[in-house]
Design goal:
By secondary structure, this protein is an alpha/beta fold. Helix content is about 60%, strand content about 5%. It folds into 2 domains: about 400 residues, no CATH class; about 140 residues, 2-Layer Sandwich (Transcription Regulator spoIIAA), CATH 3.30.750.24. The strands form 2 sheets. Strands 8-7-6-5-3-4-9 form a 7-stranded mixed sheet. A two-stranded antiparallel ribbon has the order 1-2.
């Protein structure tokens, strides 16, 4: 994975999502780590330790959402995270337990087994393998290109929505109570209804954590304020027995490494049929959410990544989850932001996290039990706030007002319906935005200025390149949705031309595809122009488009001699004099 030169702020960065880079020609490994910058190693290691300190309690919470024993949340950060760090392409995407896939898992298995039972975990392991198989299939048939349907506009809206959802979701934990709900909005409403249940001690802990992190960040961004608060809170809680004073703590956590084995269950076809819809739902979330997060951070850092290689890493990560007795893993926006906030810039951070979790599982689960729950909630709240891109939304509003509404709808979809539905909405809106641009392209006619240089002017100002010769430039691929505009504009230009036209040229330099409907429209235009005594010619036609026009019999209709390489050639053929050149 190679970095490209930065060109400015986050909003100005561009990047490439290469699905056929050189790394795909061999067996990909360590693309998210190499090349290693010596100056960045210490920051990556600190970020990895910070991620472990912050995410360990978080993934235990996700384990509860999934109906699994809390220790299995830590397992998601051991083998699965390590495998993605080795075989993924993104330098930033963090893979582990995720709220969306955990919720899908619980909803799907709730009628099939008892939560946290051996049977429940066996089903969860099978689902991890099935998710891995679906993701691997997506890699083999190379549908990682679906990530390209997430525009920069909807990515800003997506991450902003995730930030709002995450931040508001942590407020109950900061206040010392639990707010239940069937969705983000209901949870927020219940939070305000239960505000009188707030604990003074938990609120004090949250305030101290907020103050510490904000002050340290003001002093220097390099100071790991979140890590300081986690370690400090554990020490204070242990020394002063905060639990006895009403402060909620994480409690006892069992130690030990996971056993490596296949799920202990006999698979039958009827069971596979019941599990497949659950696995497919998680697959959609994995594909979309991981792609959205990888793309957003690649854009932020102006870097390359391959979504197809990320799919391989995600597949291997879920195989690791199935073998290590835990549940399906996914790319996590919040964990990715944790690493970013702590200064990590490569998968070395995630490798460090996996190693730290390995040590925690063996030796450090006892101290972790003293951590006040409010510490975790406060840190995650701040991470959610950082994900809210107000500056990006404002910039979109002032530069592209129509696209701002696309970003806002995406944000609201994530907040109101959840991350999974928000991603699907984001992809749909990206496709709509793309279709809108191609459905009504801004075409032009070409004229020669006073210095005899070719210049485009709007179709509403029909100029002739030479008396009797008009050049019409179509600025998008020709397909069924914009053929009506093509036909209408050509006929209006030809019918209203003064003096009368003898040649009508379509400048096709921007046309890279012609579908069946468009080819039929071109034949109809050629015949109608011929009936008016006007010859249709074309210039700047690519080899691929020429082959399509040959197969569509347009070439047979207008003649091979009607194709010209450049507009200069058109003008020379029409008027054998010195022709102007492009200025």
């Amino acid at each position: 994975m190679r970095k490209v030169k930065k060109t400015g702020s986050m909003q100005n960065h561009t990047y490439r999502n290469d699905s056929t880079t050189r790394s795909e020609t061999g067996f990909p490994i360590l693309q998210g780590v190499l090349p290693v910058k010596r100056s960045q190693v210490s920051a990556d290691i600190i970020a990895g330790i910070t991620l472990a300190a912050l995410a360990i309690p978080e993934v235990m919470g996700y384990a509860k959402i999934a109906g699994a024993p809390v220790i299995t949340g830590l397992y998601t950060m051991l083998i699965p995270m390590f495998l993605f760090a080795l075989f993924g392409s993104s330098r930033h995407l963090v893979v582990g337990a995720d709220s969306a896939t955990a919720a899908i898992l619980f909803a799907g298995l709730s009628t099939m087994a008892a939560p946290a039972s051996a049977q429940w975990m066996a089903y969860a392991g099978v689902l991890a393998f099935m998710s891995a198989g679906l993701v691997l299939m997506a890699r083999v048939i190379r549908i990682g290109f679906l990530a390209d349907f997430l525009s920069r506009t909807v990515l800003v809206g997506f991450l902003t929505g995730v930030g709002v959802q995450v931040a508001f979701g942590e407020i109950p934990g900061m206040l010392g109570f639990t707010a239940h709900g069937h969705g983000p909005v209901e949870t927020i409403i219940n939070t305000f209804r239960q505000i009188n249940q707030a604990s003074f001690y938990d609120l004090a802990v949250s305030g101290a954590v907020l103050l510490t992190i904000i002050v340290t960040s003001k002093i220097s961004k390099k100071i790991p304020g979140a890590l300081i608060t986690v370690i400090g809170s554990i020490a204070v809680s242990s020394m002063f027995h905060l639990r006895q004073h009403g402060v909620h703590v994480l409690g006892v956590i069992p130690s030990g490494l996971p056993a490596i084995a296949f799920p202990d269950i006999r698979l039958k076809w009827d069971l596979i049929e019941r599990l497949l819809p659950i696995a497919f739902s998680m697959f959609v979330v994995i594909l979309a959410q991981s792609a959205a997060t990888s793309r957003a951070y690649a854009a932020r850092h102006n870097e390359r990544f391959s979504q197809n290689i990320d799919l391989l890493g995600l597949s291997l990560a879920n195989i690791g989850a199935g073998l290590s007795g835990t549940f399906t893993v996914n790319g996590s926006p919040t964990k990715t932001q944790m690493v970013e906030t702590a200064g990590g810039l490569s998968q070395l951070s995630q490798i460090t996290t996996s190693f730290f979790v390995f040590l925690v599982l063996l030796f450090l689960t006892a101290p972790l039990s003293y951590m006040p729950s409010a510490v975790l909630s406060t840190v995650v709240f701040l991470i959610g706030i950082e994900l809210i891109d107000i500056r990006g939304m404002r910039r979109i509003f002032f530069e592209r007002p129509w696209e701002f509404w696309v970003a806002l709808i995406t944000t609201l979809a994530v907040i109101l319906a959840g991350v999974g539905q928000g991603i699907i909405t984001a992809m749909f809106l990206s496709i709509v935005a793309h279709t809108r641009h191609g459905y009504r392209p801004k075409n032009a006619v070409i004229k020669a200025d006073e210095k005899e240089r070719f210049r485009p002017v709007p179709v509403s100002s029909p100029e002739q390149l030479a008396p009797g010769l008009m050049v019409y430039r179509f600025t998008h691929s020709l397909y069924y949705a914009n053929t009506e505009q093509l036909s209408r504009e050509v006929m209006e230009l030809a019918g209203g031309a003064r003096p009368k036209l003898h040649w009508f040229c379509i400048a096709a330099g921007a046309i890279d595809d012609v579908d069946f409907s468009a080819a039929e429209t071109l034949r109809s235009i050629a015949n109608e122009l011929k009936d008016r005594g006007i010859r249709l010619v074309m210039s700047d036609v690519s080899e691929h488009v020429r082959e399509e026009l040959d197969r569509s019999l347009l070439t047979e209709l207008i003649g091979k001699e009607s194709y010209y390489v450049t507009l200069t050639d058109v003008l020379r053929a029409y008027r054998p004099k010195k022709a102007p050149k492009w200025g």
